[in-house]
Structures are given as structure tokens and as C-alpha cells.
Amino acid sequence: MSTLHTVNKSPFGDSAFNSCLAHCKPGDAVLLIEDGVYGAVAGSAVAANVEARAGDVSFYVLDGDTKARGLAAGKLIQQVKPVGYDGFVDLVAEHDRTQSWL
Amino acid sequence: MSEAKKFLYVNRKAPYGTIYALESLEVVLIGAAFEQDVSLAFLDDGVFQLTRDQNTDEIGVKNFSPTFRALGDYEVTKLFVEKESLEERGLEPSDLQEIMYEDEDDDWEEKPSIQIVSRSEMADIMSDQDVVLSF
Fold first, then answer.
1. pTM of the shown model
2. Is residue B101 part of a domain?
């Protein structure tokens, strides 16, 4: 049993992303979408929180949202995998439930 | 409808700055008609929704906090409040309003609906659901 978590807010000034990280379980996946993709930028104040969970949680970003914001693949935390809308659908189907951190 | 599904309504927003908290409560009340196994989670700023003595006279919006006390009549009796979220905001369980329900399986004894749980217990509750609706 596992959960797909989606986060659509920037982690700077909103607690959604950090709260998500504090509640997700080993085997879960976190998909960053919309302004949530800023949480995937390497070297930021929250990057260490992502890297600390990357061993037991899978991280993804929605590719179109990173491109829209000028975040090249080289700027992202290494363990974060870009997916397209088709990958988003696959993630929803692969997990037992989806939890949106609004 | 076959077996009841486990629904969790996750509340992470303070009550009056946005419409989320009120809308969540409206959806819970509508959803209660469908006889599912409903729980509510209050964490992060969502814990502010349950503080006692709310008075909205001067801000021109409805004080919906008393409505939480009606949830028991709709068999919504599990309100989980995260302990760490309370502590981070300088709140104690005694700062929350009392919400009771009558337990039909126990001679209609009055019992508290609010249960204070740790962050890791909250994570367990979340991972135990069929459907999670976030507000």
C-alpha cells in the first residue's frame, strides 16, 4: 500500500511541502507540480530535506512546469525524476491513493 | 453501494483567511449522507479551525465553528488533531472546543470526538485510507 503525494505550492513561505515530507511513508512517491517544482531546485534551503528522504521516497517533477519556470534539468536535485503528463497518470495508477497537499 | 470506504478529509488551513475550511466542512456534511467511514484530520494551520470562543461579529463572515459540534449527529465522530501542530502554534488541547457525540453502541454515552495524535500516528491514519480529500 502506498500513496502518491502531490505538492503545488512553493516550499518557501508555505508549509505544505515540509508537512508532506513529514507525513509520507517509505515507498510513497512525491510529485512536485505547478509552483511546487521550486522544491526540486538543487542547493536551496529545502534541498537537504528532499535528499534526506530520497532513500525511501521517490521524487518526481512535472516536466512542463519546470520548463515553464526556466528550471533546466541540471538545476534540479539529482534524485528528482522529471515526468510528463503521461507519467503523472502512471503514478496515480501505480499508487493506492493520491493525497494533494494544497 | 457495496462496502463503506474510508474517507479522510485533511484540513491544513486556518478558518477565515481563505474559503477552504468552510468548504471542507460543507463537503463533509454533504458526504455524510453517503454513509462512508469518515475521519477528519487537522494539522498545520488547520488546528486553528477548532479553537474555542471564535467570534466573527466584526469581520462580516459566518462563524462556522459551532457546526463542528453537529458532526456527531451525522455519525462523523473521528476528528484527529495533530499534537505537534498544536504545540508549534502555542496551543494546548484545552484551547480547542469540546466536541462530543453519543455512542449508539454504548448506551448513547457522550464521548469526545477530538483525538489528539502524534505526527507519526497522523501519517499512519493517512496511509490507512481509501480516499483522501484535501482542503
1. 0.89
2. yes
